[in-house]
Structures
1.
Amino acid sequence: MPRGGLLLFDWPGRHSLHPVLPACIILAVVLHSGLFYLFSIIYPAAEPAGPRPAQVFFVPEKSADHARLASILQTDDPAIFAPGRGLSRTGQRSASRYTPLYEMDKTALDALPATAVAKDDPVSLSGPVALPSPRKPDGGPPASLPTQLVSSGPLASRLPALPETAVFESLPGQSLEPTGFLVSVRPDGTVAHIVPQRASGNAQLDAKALSLLVTLRFQPAPGDNVWGEVAFHWGADVRAPVAR
């Protein structure tokens, strides 16, 4: 829109190109090329994958290399390189026959000397024979005795007696291992801590032993709390559960 005879935007008729612009473009190209060359990663030439081609080396018989390799060749494949085996003097492979084990010569065995069999005295069956009380494999009390509380540690001399009213139940014929606990006893004889150590194989019997051990009172002794292992060795008083 003309204002006072002049336009708001007046563009010159000629545009002159300043020489600084092409110089900056060339400089930028040179700098980018230098940075690309400086930070480019060059990987080493990769070796061809796959098995290498076979190579054959000829070692003269009278050379020093043959003397050094002779022992190695005889050790690695004695069927071929050992003297007198595999190859004949003419270089031809000698015929070999496989002999199975059952066709080989049997080793003669000496006969065992005859031993005189001692005759035991006949056992008199006129009366009952007294047999020792069977003992458990773990060295516990005989199977005919009632359940006992056993300890081999510092609590061995302070063990309480099990109450006669205690009832222990287990299935008939079930093999029971001793139920063991790690017990901490206060100086007054009361139980402070109980840590189960071994199970008998009957969870209800182990729970019964744990609840009973909490109520027992050991022999008082001066000093601090004493830790020891206490085990229930099950005996003949373990009966079958009563049907309810």
Note: Residues 64-91 form one domain.
2.
Amino acid sequence: MDVDGKTVLITGSTDGLGRAVAWRLANMGAHVLLHGRSRERGEALRDEIRAAGKGKADYYHADLASLAEVRNLAKAVLQDNGHIHVLVNNAGLGSGPDVNRRATSADGHELRFAVNYLSGFLLTYLLLPTILKSAPARIINVSSLGQQAIEFDDVMLERAYDGGRAYRQSKLAQIMFTFDLAEELKGKDVTVNCLHPSTFMDTTMVRLNNVPPMSTVDQGADAVMNLIVADEFGRRSGLYFNVMDEARANEQAYDAAARARLRELSKRLTGLA
């Protein structure tokens, strides 16, 4: 995909991986729609990109821990933009120093499941008519190598909370959504792929975990950009990548019944049912 003049929305793009991808796209002439929870960082990045004189940039403020704010984000983006050629669902919460303290979203859902998965699920469907109108288009979900099967009898981990498990099942949910949506959009010139961008990149999230970085943000940005611009991913869809290599996800991702169960649950929780 030649992104010059194309409109690209990247959630979680005021820091780390999302910020790096935003800069690369802007330098290639894209109209980058930035998103984040920090208005100060978001507006500063918008102004920096505009001052660089290459691509365009706009900033949208939203806390993805609230489904109402996800809806407001979609509404604002659609009011301002007639096309969305690429959507990168990148925003997310890691394990963090409070990993084993259960927290909930504004809607009462387990926080990591809400932010890492439900917000992207809802945002994607709210934007989907415009993405389809903008075809050829691409949707990229930034997931993780850390995955764990979803326990459907306790999705919100109310019985025995473990923050690592909460993170891993939210990331597997993203992959299951990717596979499902790719099948739904088959033949519509919109591809949907997901990836583990790199392990322990030098990001704020990793530093908060007191983990020594094992890779760089630039390596992760290389992997995301590959799915955005490489010709083959205008044709190939429903794939999971470990950085640049096509890989196999947790086995539950290939269970059609489990994906259908997750889809039904997700639509009900987000009000799309």
Note: Residues 7-270 form a domain with the Rossmann fold fold (CATH 3.40.50.720).
3.
Amino acid sequence: MSFTKVLFRYGTWPVLFFGFGGVVVWLASANVGVWPMFAVLAGAVAFSFLAERVIPYQPDWNRTHDDVARDWLHALINTSLNRAALWLLPWLTWTALGGDFWPHTWPFALQVVFAALILDLGIAMAHHASHRFAPLWRFHAVHHSPRRLYGFNGLMKHPVHQAIETGSGVLPLLLLGIPFEVAITLPFLVVIALLCQHSNADYRTGGFKYVFANAEVHRFHHANSADGDVNFGLFTVLYDRLMGTFRYEPDAAPRESRQIGIAGEQPYPVNYWAQLAEPFRPSQ
């Protein structure tokens, strides 16, 4: 293996997760506004796509499966919704939804970590419930419909399900009185975490995969069998450790398109607008 590939194999995840994520936190602490943070996010997307081509986990998943336009629509619309939510955050954080329980005296970075852990648990709970209860699964199924895993899959969510997960994670933070400066980091950190989770880069994270919910463990979640009801965390595997849903087995993660997606004879719609409508169709 070339030196470049070795660098990408062991450097991709820390650069994405700690590097780009750390810059977002630093920019928020400096109160520079959201546009520089969007520039960092664009850089993270570009770096993620580069890594997928330098060290592909499954080379065929770098090839279009007639899904590029659909995936761009998911990414652009969901990112736009996230951006719209940013403008609601100042109002939400200034309302008296709860007491002033937030640890304002902590260092800014530590406050962000605290917020991310609470968000992580809330989203993981909603995610787990979406695999157990049919009405929620109908909306979550959109995320599991692709037959390849790559960076944009993380943004492939039905807007209704995205709202459910976001509400589950954000409400406890609002009740605690999260400051706007901390809250503003979360949408950007979520997108970076999703890039890490669904990356088609064959990176290695050593012992970090037993703490953080990266691609090495998240690929098991996309198996199209009962074995996929594992690894629900977004940032960490803390929830999965608590609930007994953590799974990692060396070299056992899905590697072929036939191993991921949604099981069953009825093909799931591939068109964007059909995917939005699918959860509302009567059950067969």
Note: The chain has a mean pLDDT of 90.
4.
Amino acid sequence: MPASARLASTPLSILDLAHIRQGGTPAEAFRNSRLLAQRAESLNYNRFWLAEHHNIRGVACSATSVLIGHIANATSKIRVGAGGIMLPNHSPLAIAEQFGTLESLFPGRIDLGVGRAPGGDSAAARALRGPFVTSGEDFPDLLDELRRYLGKPQPSQRVHAYPGEDTNVPIYLLGSSDFSARLAGELGLPFAFAAHFQPGPLLPALRIYRASFRPSAVLERPYAMVGIPVIVADSDEQAQFLTTTPVQMFLNLIRGVPGPLPPPTKTVEWTSAERDTVAAKLGAAIFGGPERVASRLNSFLEETDADELIVVTNAYNFEDRLHSYELLASLVGKVQENPQTVSAANR
């Protein structure tokens, strides 16, 4: 398949963290998430996922299942889900009940991506889990329990998820290393790699996933999603200016002072070591005008053979973020919109 045809046929999705910008509020972040999801639906994006995080100032998606319901209620066809739920933070029964409820409210539209990281620091993990903090070694057992609650009831089963049982909400394993890649392959589940913040192990993890894959009742062949940072602007120069927002965001994380999204800036004050660390975090990022982004996306798909791209766009102004997703959809030929739908979404 030619590279351009591959790009046009690859599903595009959105990963949202409900970022609060400097001078903004959680209410504004939630409102923008809703508007973005509505616009994404009109642009034929495949999914809109929200990621669980805790104790990170400026990130407002801690009550992930609540936000999923908010977004699903404001849309009608786009798939909505978790990218993901950090399963060791929760009782598998509680997650099965939450997502069983969501699936019952929005049938056929809910995804459940799960990961084993805490989605925050060790203090947040202790606050969430009490004295039972683990390093994720119990994740396979928690996943098995969750899948049982969402599947068909068994004769010996004493605890049931009502609702949740037999809803078979699609489960995706998320990872930034080879652990979940191997587990997803062995279980025959779809796999999503977090190259939007940990691009280094991407290619080895994909190789392990595909090599270890065993066909299952869920999948006959591997299905790999890849999360990547993308900013598309009208020109390369404008995109590079907007990119200073995610650059500063990662710089603040490295310095241990996370906070709201900062506005773009003409200069960034950092050391060479900090610059190298940020560059590593953004190693899979694709920033530029439409022509540059299309070319680099083609190369990325050729290199990774990804089945789906889930895009993170951390622009300070919501209008720039929206415009980036519009340009991205347009350059891969996915726009089939109703202007009335678009205008209604912004009222």
Note: Residues 335-347 have pLDDT under 50 and may be disordered.
